[in-house]
Amino acid sequence: MTDLDRMLGAVRAMPTDARLEMMDDAVMGGVAKKREQVTARRSLMLAGLLAIGIGWAGSIVPAAPAQASPLPIGMSNYAPSRLLGQ
Question: How many CA atoms lie within 13 A of 45 on its CB side?
Answer without folding.
Answer: 6
